[in-house]
């Protein structure tokens, strides 16, 4: 029984159980003197939950894990049919057998062992589907039977339904935590496998990054160099350029808009600047690579500078533009949170407006601004598309912003894009870089939170 | 009192001198602020203008009007089991033959190939469609507009400079003379580039369209919405309305805020490791892309929903509770409906963010070259931003305009979504 | 004093908000079909006490209630009590009128709906009409039942809230300063209404206005700093208070 048909059957049973439950409680209630505890709808809903909860659970578990199990069984079958196979051959034959079963490839192009395996796989799949359907539907029917026996005038159906809803909500809240755990575990797990092959100190302090060599199979043990220092340096340089753009422009516009600008200008300028935040990063990447980089290169040539067409400068400048609204809206919030009486106090002493801002407002808002900048740095470090499109791929260790550098995120993309074996050192390296990225951004966020909480305004 | 200066006068003179300086600094500071605002707005203007400007050529394309003889000997009418007729033939060959009829002097193989190069590789597609729709055209002569190749198109649009020396230009003098003759005959004309919207991806710039990527984006966003909206709203309700204030809920809250700041590419790594590598879900599928984006959007929705729930005044909750509504009834009957506009606005903004996201989707292979329009969430697909990324990597000149046009379409799409959110907020927003 | 058993009996009721004690051992007997007024200076715990009677304090974090409160001899803090059912029996009207942002009809119909009191639409219509009539609002709103309840004046809104409360058919109605947000005319209307409702409901009212307590109530309890200082028939409390503090408050010396 196919998945969609099974889901439709289950939905039908669920619907039936809902109306059945409502109908049944009405019948029971008519013959009883007692006041009914819960309304009819709750009895119906209770029965609906009884009918669908367990089957849905079975369905999800079965559908998630049966491909894994079937795959393993197919693998062992192929081992028997075709004798010992290398990892690569096994992969090819597995894919062929599945494709043959799905009818995507012509049987004429595959070997006998694959044909047999495909037939075997077909049997497995149909067996698995039948078992799934039997299990799911019988659980649903059993659910109706169990639930219907509980229905009674004094049965607290509303309590049951509501506590179910509550558990559903708790489960949903847990997803956010599970996502974090999933990120940490998958990054750490893959990184540990990477550090089996490349030492941690080489990764963190090595000056040479050239992962390309490692995929060549004749180089046993994969002797590509995985020294990530050039990546860190490149990331840092681009982030620095970005901050040099974003902090002055973002902060000054926030100050001007909240302290000086007329309401009219403010109403136009604020949303306009925030549009910058809504532009997808791939657009910035395009802008950096195809508009700004040629401009910089030609401009550099005119004044006798050699600017690489994938310079750190172009990527950094555009990233800075992307971050402007981030800094300006966060600073705007903290500047507005500074109480008016502080400004009045300074003005009353005869300070000019700019003196008030520089000597009173900004120091009061400083923790918030610092935290905004930290968050902006975290965002710049994690930004991917701009650097993938506008920064380089080659890992140069340089302090010259006109040269091409590469970043952590660029390398993650380069290592993972394209078809390759999932377990190679190259792909594992991407996870190690991801781990570094995750912890650095996490650290910056926590630090930003700490700065705000520790030095938050003492005035109220 | 000519020489005598009292301390008061001295102080006054000092203040006056100082004041001028202070006012200068005040003006300077103000000017910096103004400059910053103008810079930010100017950059936005420059960015938008440059992209829209460079996209303009992609929205039109030059076509050649040809009289094509649908030669019976070169097409084949087929009837399948269901009595459906279809016509197969060398359409491009027919179109090319008709072009050659204009230039009988071209005979050498090399020149013929050059001549045919004026036309797009997809020049026969329109004819195929036409004859398949009306098989009675077989044996007749039909007038049809066929697309020119991208380089020829650029030349006519003036984007390739025809005054350059021949070796620096993509179009040779010979080709140029043919083109001039066709133009003089009034056979070349400009039309709206429907291919941009009706076609899937292609290696040929003039044939490449956004339809596949657009449908891929819709499917992906659909999955994202389906997963992240219920999960986010349920989680937010629990955290805001029901959870006891303890360490665990504080942890969940901190965690949610941190998750919102995790770089998107890390979510891509998660998707690769968990969905593709562990659960063996298909690569490049909207299902996986949607799941990854859903996890990424979840914190946004949770945070927006909580803020929206918190803005519903407690008096409403008390009133309902005092009438004997249970906690869940209070939420479902009163609080949630009142918070819904805010929740929907937050969700739409989160989805717009997800729709513009590229990096995590690259990790799970949603940047493959896919011609066909995906039909379901497990089919191979790409999304608009990834399509833009792929086109941007294409060195051909005509793809620059194509990419810009893709960006214009993406931005219009996002603008529509965001406008929806703004309208929703304006229409239903309730102030307490 | 009456000889009928009290409708509501409280024994040694204490309330803590965290570490702060808000009520100290309150013993009270509240009679059926009477209006009992709770008076006292701000922060004396009278509202807190009122909220104990329908367990509205349950939702406040770190609020603990000790002692026992029974209605018709049944302990309402007993584990077997369904708080939802309790609140259907013990309705509450709040200080600020808080109609739902729905139509007038929906406001009144909400309670009967969730408790499944009406079998069909006409029965529900009937309940809505009766409740609005009893609250003295029918004349004013019968032609605009389906307009928003928040479009009414403050006094009308408060009567709508009363209509909404009695639509559930409770036997106790708690009122937490129901007139404090209203003008004198609207207040007089509500006071009249309270007098009428007394025939069918046991009413407990918290009020800041001594005149109001004197006008509407049969019994009065004076709270001070979380203690129940004095309780008794309203007449005797106002004319001849036994306690110095009560006397000082009533005569306007403190409060």
Polypeptide structure, described:
The complex is a heterotrimer of chains A (460), B (432) and C (255). Chain A has helices at 3-30, 40-82, 87-102, 112-150, 157-197, 200-205, 229-260, 263-278, 281-302, 312-337, 340-348, 353-382, 385-390, 408-416, 425-454, and strands spanning 209-210, 225-226. With 460 residues, chain A is mostly helical. Chain A has two domains: 3-155, no CATH class; 225-459, MetI-like fold. In chain A, helix 10 crosses helix 12 (353-382) and helix 11 (340-348) packs antiparallel against helix 12. Chain B has two domains: 58-78 and 91-190, no CATH class; 211-428, Orthogonal Bundle (MetI-like fold), CATH 1.10.3720.10. Chain B is built from 16 helices and five strands. Chain B has a three-stranded antiparallel sheet. In chain B, strand 2 and strand 3 (85-89) form a beta hairpin. In chain B, helix 11 crosses helix 13 (327-355). Chain C has a domain at 6-94 and 171-250: Rossmann fold. Chain C contains ten helices and ten strands. Chain C has 255 residues and is of the alpha/beta class. The relative contact order of chain C is 0.18. The B-C interface holds B 244-245, 313, 315-326, 329, 333-334, 338, 430 and C 54, 56, 59, 61, 84-88, 91-94, 96, 98-101, 110-111, 114-115, 161, 164-165, 168.
């Amino acid at each position: 029984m196919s998945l969609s048909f099974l889901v439709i059957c289950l939905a039908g049973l669920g619907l039936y159980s809902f109306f059945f439950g409502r109908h049944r409680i009405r019948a029971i209630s008519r013959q009883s003197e007692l006041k009914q505890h819960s309304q009819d709808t709750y009895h119906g809903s209770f029965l609906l939950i009884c009918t669908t909860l367990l089957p849905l659970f079975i369905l999800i578990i079965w559908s998630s894990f049966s491909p894994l199990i079937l795959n393993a069984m197919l693998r062992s079958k192929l081992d028997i049919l075709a004798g010992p196979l290398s990892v690569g051959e096994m992969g090819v034959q597995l894919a062929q057998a599945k494709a043959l079963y799905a009818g995507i490839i012509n049987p004429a192009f595959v070997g006998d062992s694959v044909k047999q395996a495909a037939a075997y796989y077909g049997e497995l799949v149909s067996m698995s589907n039948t078992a799934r359907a039997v299990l799911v539907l019988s659980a649903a029917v059993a659910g109706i039977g169990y639930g219907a026996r509980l229905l009674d005038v004094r049965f607290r159906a509303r309590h049951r339904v509501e506590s179910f809803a509550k558990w559903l909500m708790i489960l949903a809240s847990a997803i956010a935590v599970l996502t974090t755990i999933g990120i940490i575990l998958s990054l750490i797990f893959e990184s540990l496998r990477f550090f089996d092959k490349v030492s941690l100190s080489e990764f963190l302090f090595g000056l040479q990054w050239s992962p390309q060599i490692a995929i060549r199979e004749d180089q046993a043990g994969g002797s590509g160099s995985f020294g990530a220092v050039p990546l860190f340096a490149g990331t840092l340089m681009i982030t620095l350029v970005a901050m040099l753009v974003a902090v002055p422009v973002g902060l000054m516009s926030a100050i001007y808009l909240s302290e000086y600008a007329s309401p009219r200008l403010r109403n136009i300028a604020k949303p306009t600047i925030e549009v910058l935040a809504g532009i997808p990063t791939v657009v910035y990447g395009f802008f950096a690579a195809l508009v700004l980089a040629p401009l910089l290169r030609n401009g550099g040539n005119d004044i006798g500078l050699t600017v690489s067409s994938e310079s750190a400068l172009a990527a950094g400048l555009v990233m800075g533009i992307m971050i402007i609204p981030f800094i300006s809206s966060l600073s705007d919030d903290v500047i507005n949170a500074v109480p008016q009486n502080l400004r009045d106090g300074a003005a009353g002493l005869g300070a000019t407006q700019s003196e008030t801002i520089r000597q009173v407002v900004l120091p009061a808002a400083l923790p918030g601004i610092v935290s905004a900048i930290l968050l902006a740095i975290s965002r710049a470090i994690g930004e991917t598309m701009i650097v993938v499109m506008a920064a380089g791929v080659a890992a140069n260790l340089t302090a010259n912003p006109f040269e091409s550098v590469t970043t952590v995120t660029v390398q993650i993309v380069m290592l993972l894009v394209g078809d390759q074996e999932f377990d190679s050192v190259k792909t594992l390296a991407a996870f190690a870089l991801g781990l570094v990225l995750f912890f650095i951004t996490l650290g910056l966020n926590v630090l930003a939170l700490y700065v705000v909480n520790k030095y938050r305004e003492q005035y109220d | 009192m000519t020489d005598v200066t009292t301390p008061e006068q001295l102080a006054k003179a000092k203040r006056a001198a100082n004041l001028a300086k202070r006012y200068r600094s005040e003006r300077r500071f103000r000017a910096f602020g103004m400059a910053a605002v103008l810079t930010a707005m100017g950059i936005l203007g420059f960015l938008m203008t440059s992209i829209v400007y460079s996209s303009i050529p992609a929205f039109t394309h030059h076509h050649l009007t040809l009289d094509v003889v649908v030669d019976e000997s070169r097409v084949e009418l087929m009837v399948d089991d269901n009595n459906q007729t279809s016509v197969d033939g060398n359409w491009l060959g027919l179109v090319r033959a008709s072009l050659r009829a204009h230039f009988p002097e071209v005979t050498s193989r090399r020149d013929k190939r050059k001549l045919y190069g004026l036309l797009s590789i997809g020049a026969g597609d329109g004819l195929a469609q036409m004859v398949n729709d009306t098989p009675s055209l077989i044996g007749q002569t039909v007038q049809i507009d066929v697309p020119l190749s991208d380089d020829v198109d650029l030349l006519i649009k003036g984007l390739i400079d025809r005054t350059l020396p021949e070796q620096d230009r993509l179009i040779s003098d010979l080709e140029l003379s043919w083109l001039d003759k066709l133009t003089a005959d009034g056979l070349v004309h400009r039309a709206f580039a429907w291919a941009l919207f009706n076609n899937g991806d292609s290696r040929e710039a003039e044939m490449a369209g956004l339809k596949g990527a657009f449908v891929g984006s819709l499917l992906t966003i659909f999955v994202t919405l389906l997963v992240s909206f219920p999960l986010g709203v349920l989680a937010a309700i629990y955290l805001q309305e029901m959870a006891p204030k303890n360490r665990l809920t504080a942890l969940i809250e901190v965690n949610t805020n941190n998750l919102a700041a995790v770089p998107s590419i890390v979510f891509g790594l998660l998707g690769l490791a968990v969905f593709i590598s562990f659960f063996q879900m298909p690569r490049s599928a909207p299902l996986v892309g949607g799941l990854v984006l859903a996890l990424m959007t979840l914190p946004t929705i949770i945070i927006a929903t909580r803020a929206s729930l918190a803005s519903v005044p407690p008096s409403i909750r008390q009133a309902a509770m005092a009438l004997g509504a249970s906690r869940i009834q209070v939420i479902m009957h009163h609080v949630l409906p009142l918070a819904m506009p805010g929740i929907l606005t937050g969700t739409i903004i989160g989805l717009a963010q997800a729709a513009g996201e590229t990096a995590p989707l690259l990790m799970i292979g949603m940047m493959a070259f896919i011609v066909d329009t995906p039909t379901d969430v497990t089919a191979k697909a790409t999304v608009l931003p990834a399509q833009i990324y792929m086109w941007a990597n294409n060195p051909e000149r005509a793809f620059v305009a194509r990419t810009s046009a893709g960006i214009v379409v993406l931005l219009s799409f996002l603008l529509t979504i965001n406008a929806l959110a703004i309208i929703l907020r304006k229409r239903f927003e309730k102030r307490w | 004093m009456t000889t009928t058993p009290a409708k509501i009996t409280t024994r040694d009721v204490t309330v803590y908000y965290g570490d702060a004690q808000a009520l100290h051992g309150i013993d009270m007997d509240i009679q059926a079909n009477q209006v009992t007024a709770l008076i006292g200076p701000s922060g004396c715990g009278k509202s807190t006490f009122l909220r104990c009677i329908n367990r509205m304090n349950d939702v406040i974090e770190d609020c603990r209630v000790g002692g026992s409160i029974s209605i018709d001899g049944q302990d309402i803090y007993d584990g077997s009590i369904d708080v939802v059912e309790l609140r259907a029996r013990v309705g509450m009207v709040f200080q600020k009128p808080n109609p739902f942002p729905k139509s007038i009809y929906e406001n009144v119909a909400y309670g009967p709906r969730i408790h499944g009191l009406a079998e069909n639409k006409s029965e529900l219509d009937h309940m809505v009409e009766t409740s609005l009539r009893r609250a003295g609002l029918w004349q004013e709103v019968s032609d605009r039942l389906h307009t928003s309840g928040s479009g009414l004046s403050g006094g009308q809104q408060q009567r709508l809230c009363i209509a909404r409360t009695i639509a559930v058919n409770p036997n106790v109605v708690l009122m937490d300063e129901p007139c404090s947000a209203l003008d004198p005319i609207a207040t007089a209307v509500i006071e009249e209404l309270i007098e009428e409702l007394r025939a069918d409901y046991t009413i407990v009212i918290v009020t800041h206005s001594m005149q109001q307590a004197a006008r509407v109530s049969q019994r009065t309890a004076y709270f001070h700093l979380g203690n129940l200082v004095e309780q008794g028939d309203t007449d005797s409390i106002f004319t001849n208070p036994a306690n110095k503090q009560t006397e000082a408050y009533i005569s306007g010396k403190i409060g």
